[in-house]
Amino acid sequence: MIVKVKEPQAEEIARIRPGRVIFTYFHFAADQALTEAMVESGAVAIAYETVTDRGGKLPLLTPMSEVAGRMSAQEGAKYLERPMQGRGILLGGVPGVEPASVLVLGGGVVGTNAAKIAAGLGARVVIMDVDGDRMRYLSDVMPANVHTVHSDAHSIRKYTAEADLVIGAVLIPGARCPVLVPRSYLAEMKPGAVIVDVGVDQGGCCETTRPTTHSDPIYVVDGVLHYGVTNMPGAVGRTSTFALTNATLPYVLRLANLGYRRAAAADPGLALGINIQEGRVTHPGVARAFGLKLETPRLAGA
Amino acid sequence: MIVKVKEPQAEEIARIRPGRVIFTYFHFAADQALTEAMVESGAVAIAYETVTDRGGKLPLLTPMSEVAGRMSAQEGAKYLERPMQGRGILLGGVPGVEPASVLVLGGGVVGTNAAKIAAGLGARVVIMDVDGDRMRYLSDVMPANVHTVHSDAHSIRKYTAEADLVIGAVLIPGARCPVLVPRSYLAEMKPGAVIVDVGVDQGGCCETTRPTTHSDPIYVVDGVLHYGVTNMPGAVGRTSTFALTNATLPYVLRLANLGYRRAAAADPGLALGINIQEGRVTHPGVARAFGLKLETPRLAGA
Amino acid sequence: MIVKVKEPQAEEIARIRPGRVIFTYFHFAADQALTEAMVESGAVAIAYETVTDRGGKLPLLTPMSEVAGRMSAQEGAKYLERPMQGRGILLGGVPGVEPASVLVLGGGVVGTNAAKIAAGLGARVVIMDVDGDRMRYLSDVMPANVHTVHSDAHSIRKYTAEADLVIGAVLIPGARCPVLVPRSYLAEMKPGAVIVDVGVDQGGCCETTRPTTHSDPIYVVDGVLHYGVTNMPGAVGRTSTFALTNATLPYVLRLANLGYRRAAAADPGLALGINIQEGRVTHPGVARAFGLKLETPRLAGA
Amino acid sequence: MIVKVKEPQAEEIARIRPGRVIFTYFHFAADQALTEAMVESGAVAIAYETVTDRGGKLPLLTPMSEVAGRMSAQEGAKYLERPMQGRGILLGGVPGVEPASVLVLGGGVVGTNAAKIAAGLGARVVIMDVDGDRMRYLSDVMPANVHTVHSDAHSIRKYTAEADLVIGAVLIPGARCPVLVPRSYLAEMKPGAVIVDVGVDQGGCCETTRPTTHSDPIYVVDGVLHYGVTNMPGAVGRTSTFALTNATLPYVLRLANLGYRRAAAADPGLALGINIQEGRVTHPGVARAFGLKLETPRLAGA
Amino acid sequence: MIVKVKEPQAEEIARIRPGRVIFTYFHFAADQALTEAMVESGAVAIAYETVTDRGGKLPLLTPMSEVAGRMSAQEGAKYLERPMQGRGILLGGVPGVEPASVLVLGGGVVGTNAAKIAAGLGARVVIMDVDGDRMRYLSDVMPANVHTVHSDAHSIRKYTAEADLVIGAVLIPGARCPVLVPRSYLAEMKPGAVIVDVGVDQGGCCETTRPTTHSDPIYVVDGVLHYGVTNMPGAVGRTSTFALTNATLPYVLRLANLGYRRAAAADPGLALGINIQEGRVTHPGVARAFGLKLETPRLAGA
Amino acid sequence: MIVKVKEPQAEEIARIRPGRVIFTYFHFAADQALTEAMVESGAVAIAYETVTDRGGKLPLLTPMSEVAGRMSAQEGAKYLERPMQGRGILLGGVPGVEPASVLVLGGGVVGTNAAKIAAGLGARVVIMDVDGDRMRYLSDVMPANVHTVHSDAHSIRKYTAEADLVIGAVLIPGARCPVLVPRSYLAEMKPGAVIVDVGVDQGGCCETTRPTTHSDPIYVVDGVLHYGVTNMPGAVGRTSTFALTNATLPYVLRLANLGYRRAAAADPGLALGINIQEGRVTHPGVARAFGLKLETPRLAGA
């Protein structure tokens, strides 16, 4: 069994033997070449991003969402600086000078972590979601400078116009982010305001979001800075690696101890992680993406 | 010695004998009849409101400022209700609905207590002052939903227009409040917004402030509710009495044990409390108010 | 489809055409005339108060409970003032003077919000419930001046006698509130103490609770003030409307997009909202209240 | 120069040469033999306990007061256990069971630290003092489960009767503690309640306080446990030593670099630390205690 | 029906009549004589420790876990004192002196309560668990001086070596605690560090843990103090009794009102509490422990 | 009168007329050419950096210290990222992964603000100072994840070695920073750790600190990143300008209303701001720096 963080690179794939189990992030639907190579390899590809827990959540994506959420506020603070092309304001203000206004779109893992850090930096934070129960919980546990507001087009437009920093934190597993901030809103934003769109991998929730890299992280549209780095956790690799390993280790142990067929038979959520099994495509998302035939994974005792 | 809370009433004055010490609130400068009556009585009038501590503060006014400051936020919350003629909003909002914006003008005892309670009710609070060191302290100890903003005309106008509740907390010992909110600002305020002006006894810091009573506390000017009750602490008499007694008792004990001449000789701040001494006016504010001759108080050993 | 907040008024009912969907609060069981009128109208009455979410909660009642809970503490603070006939104390005390004691009966949505605001005002708060897990959660997220105490007759009596303010927050969906505070306890309470009974619509949890209005909100029994306003959220209509709309909007959209029969077929909790369907009574509570025949709602595909 | 923590022991004194500087705790007034021995030795005794800073505080006593204050709450928690003869309650309670009530007498360094720890343990804490400004500060910075109450005989009696733990924290530099809790109050206390009297070295603020040791720390009077260990910080020697050294080190450096005569000439507060100088008694407290002649210390340039 | 706290004593068993219901802690698996006596008695033994709620938790054990968890931190603070043989440090440090480091192994009920109190005492706390979602919740609600760290052998070893206090809080219902701290780690710990192992009844999570009593609570292994009292909540009997009664009372009422057969038929979790029924062993754990025949409990209507 | 932020540029100086008052930052001691030009100009140079308030503090430097202090933590967070050459860790960690350790050297304005923001980001923070009373205050008002430690060489070395981020915040008005972190300590630091030395203008408190710019902010020495930007507040110009104006405006008004000679006569702290007066050097620091003759400023009435 091979356990990795990133998808196998070309030279690595060449050396994979049939039947070998590869446990890592694959994101097949976005990479046809990788999909075909893994099908041909005869290996078993168990993808972190589709392993599911009992509550239907994606436990091997959550740690990366936590890292990216926390980073998003600190990136926003940095790019608001004038030499970075931002508005030239300090997120937390100082005594006598009001702090920045931060709008966090989405109250899930990414948004909660973003709001917590933005609040810790001293900003005035609004976090938006459509889930009333989530709002109630956030209202119980967030610092007093975070306010929850129900997400709808009217509110998003109003708070976007007031914000110094907008953090896009709307990630829907396996789907494109809905576009909540159309380009037309940018004209109403403050010049030099910053958008950090954490969901860039899934298209982002701003119409103007596009992918960038750590070496060239920002670009400006209509006077608004956009930060669209696709692999934010990569910048804090030590933290990310620990966080990911904490989550993957229990699976690795079970895969190693039981063999993957028995481990997956005992845990349907782990079975959902098997994307490709010895030449057969076994995950609906992958099959659908490339018009391949979907087959049922063969588990122990099945 | 007679210890009271309110100034002596007409029938009481008639019975005061010369040389008797009366220790209470007098507020002579606002009441010529009382001044003349006390001069004629030959009694010694030691006024709570001019007793001073070593730091130059007024320790017998502070407890009433604390009570009034805390009450002001809860009065504001009440009069924002629609049946009270207010905007019909809940100060703290609820999860998913943004809270009210509260502007507190003045970061002294009144303002600090007002901001603390408004924050406790869940509002978004801005507190303004011109004293940078006070701002720094407030920024250290206030809840995270209180932000400090330097007070100047531009900021006051901006935040007044955004506020659902404005609390006037600018009290300058022995002077009229400066007018920080001219009537012209009211037109920019939200209809049904509320102003609670704690400094009403000293004229208030809003041009449109005028005195009201607990039985008829509010009036409307240009669509904005005004709460101008002159004796706010009177509504919570049990709390106020305890608070005042805590502060006056040490003075009472010293006056009783040493006699007022020796007590005042030993404590120059207490001596400043002697407004009228056996027919002689001994406080500059009283003398100035009515064009009377100012004399030096006669203390023990002097 | 007609979306409202309050039940249809007589003149409105006259104009409702058969088959029209009315989505609002109805509270049929308390209003036989309304029930009969709606049956005759041939319309479809979907009642906010019986729509249920997956967890068995009532998502269209929750926002009103939040508003009422938060208001209850601020009403209590107001009516403790002496001119309002209360004890004349300030809920939060001041430095050197102890704060009021607040007892919140019930740790659900109403009670949690009441306790949070009472604590924010600086009071010493006890919140009672019988659900241990709820206590544990409250103990994790409440401010340090809120203490949880298991609810039983002995404790209720003891803490009622010590309290300056008692908030009744025991609402059981579709049932009368249990009487936790019999009249006999009032004799042991402090004169001028205040009871705010949020569950007054369902009879309240105090024997002496009876309904009042915003224009005449209080009455006194055995020296204790009672606040029994039946529609507390009405006083803060702006906040309440936003809060309610946040919760109803997703249902409205589905009703509009799918038609009510398909929307209800897809969401059993929404189907529970259909109280009357084109002349047929389809909710057990309504049928039972007036001895009417209960029929099954006809949904799409059923 | 010799720097120590405790006063010199008999065998050490014998070896002290004239003119040698000893910098340590001496507490001469309580130990005539030590006083006489040090006079005879011809050494210079600079006592930690009388060194004063610019604000008139005793900077070399403060660290020990902090340690003792923090310890006092945790000792109280321990001795409330039943096997220790206490009431058998847990200071912080648990969800559903009310916490203990703690009364802290005195809002200075000892009391503030005691209250902070008692609050951290989850208790309901009342802290009493007569200084209004100190109350205000405590009310700004203490956790929400600490309430300030003005200290007077009526309040002390009332809160003592309700308390599970009373912490005596009334230390007046160089004077006997006033007796705030007469023996008669004990009869009204709960059986098994605990008194920790930190001021035991100065007589304690409870009539029934008497000195005990770490090996036999408690005794019972009228059903109430008393903890009167005289050298509380000694139990946490590592922490105490660091705390003390942080405070003494700057003095030690100046004494070593300048010589004690020049160091004391430059810092009148350090000069106040010189209790005995080469056979002459130079501190009024020591002279008064044993009827010795008081002389002025001889400093450099004087 | 007999309701108790502790298991029946020999003389009590003799008087139990057949068919009588005994509702208390039994812990049969650890006491063969008790098991046999109860089988012979013909009584019905319903054991607190195996009653289960809907979420699969043990609601009659939880209150004791809360008490023990909270106590564990305060015991640790006490035994760190030098006269108790500890390191001689104050858990919370003082200003200028760093606080103690506390490691809590396990983030369940015991660990959460332990961490909360240790943090309240001012320590620097690390709490470890393997459940990511629990970590996230703790990170939302714990004070800022508590950090969550994923539990694995490497981390445990590292943090054990740095800790002044280790609290074992790993309790797995019905199973021996896993050994997380082997004896070899002790050599790397600081001399005088303290281990409080709350899971001692189930073997503890330290290899060197062994049971002790309130009268002789500690022993030293390899320089490290061990506190292994088996019945920690017994020391705070008043608190524990209230906590337990809060949890048992609803069951007692149902047992009394319905009879145990109907009560257990209506609540499968209560049925799991029936360990022995009129001479028949009905709980698998008891049967397995002593090789007895397991029978199905006879309930009403079954 | 001319009011500026930065010192006059060459072309500006040429146009300054004799007697004109220039009120801005000058920092003469570091710029002989500027000094000579201003002497020659015959103008009056009042320098922000030497204006003093009644407490001896520098009120026109404080706002910049606040901005720089808050920025320092967010810069540190940014440069810990791997693409920035840092260790690749997230300052606040995530649930299950320990946060970074931050050491703040100095507990004044800069350090307090740095510690507050680092704590808000979720780090484990140690703040060091030698002033015990400052430590006590910080311990009262800082979040629970900030611990105070007395500053001495031993502690600095220990905590530097453990730190991921060291913030130098030791600014002594008018003096070079003491070197607290010699180069030898760097070898013991973690590779990729970051030092942000706010005192770089005064030499910094690390031996290896040297000035950098916003366009090229960092350099690496012995594996440790150094951030030495000299004008940190410049990056957040909007915030800094408001903060500075809040502080300067009252002086500007007085200078304008009274004329500088009368304003300075009335406020000795403002008089200390007069560095050069119509060709005469009137500030000792400037005179000393360049061996010029020091003259007394001529004020009104003097």
List keywords for this structure.
homohexamer, 302 residues, alpha/beta, Rossmann fold, 2 domains, 7-stranded mixed beta sheet, 5-stranded mixed beta sheet, elongated
**Total beta strand runs of chain A:** 12
Instruction: Give the strand order of the largest sheet of chain A, numbering strands 1, 2, ... along the chain.
Output: 6-5-4-7-8-10-9
| Structural class designation of chain A | alpha/beta
Helix-strand sequence of chain A = EHEHEHEHEHEHEHEEEHHHEEH
According to CATH, the homologous superfamily of the largest domain in chain A is NAD(P)-binding Rossmann-like Domain
Identify the CATH architecture of the largest domain in chain A. Answer: 3-Layer(aba) Sandwich
Total helical elements of chain A: 11
Number of domains of chain A: 2
Beta-strand fraction estimate of chain A: 15-25%
Helix content of chain A: 25-40%
Oligomeric state, counting identical vs distinct chains: homohexamer
Walk me through the structure.
Six copies of one chain form a homohexamer. Chain A has 302 residues and is an alpha/beta fold. The first copy, chain A, folds into two domains: 104 residues, NAD(P)-binding Rossmann-like Domain (Rossmann fold, 3-Layer(aba) Sandwich); 166 residues, NAD(P)-binding Rossmann-like Domain (Rossmann fold, 3-Layer(aba) Sandwich), CATH 3.40.50. The first copy, chain A, has eleven helices and twelve strands. Chain A has a seven-stranded mixed sheet, sandwiched between helices. A five-stranded mixed sheet of chain A has the order 1-2-3-11-12. In chain A, strand 1, helix 1 and strand 2 form a beta-alpha-beta unit. In chain A, helix 3 packs parallel to helix 4. The radius of gyration of chain A is 21 Å and the shape is elongated. The two termini of chain A are 22 Å apart. The mean pLDDT of chain A is 94. Chains in contact: A-B, A-C, A-E, A-F, B-C, B-D, B-F, C-D, C-E, D-E, D-F, E-F. At the A-E interface, helix 3 and helix 8 of A face helix 5 of E.
